[in-house]
Amino acid sequence: MSNLEALKAEIKKLSAKATQAKMDLHDLAEELPANWTSILSVAQQVHDAFDELERKREDLKARE
């Protein structure tokens, strides 16, 4: 597997991770006010997941 293919596979996994994090935040929002104390930590997880995904996508774009 080439470096480019490996990066694309990593992006695919990160995309799934980011989508799951987004859904976790969505589910939390629907359940409010229950578990309101976890909003910041869940939102940080979403932010981190999409930040990492965006950086990898930029890396891929630069390599292509």
From TrEMBL:
Belongs to the UPF0437 family. This is Rop-like protein. Residues 4-63 form a coiled coil. The keyword Chloroplast does not apply. Gene3D superfamilies: Helix hairpin bin (1.10.287.660). It holds the Pfam family Rop-like. Keywords: Coiled coil, Nitrogen fixation. InterPro entries: Helix_hairpin_bin_sf, Put_N_fixation. Signal peptide: none annotated. It comes from the Bacteria.
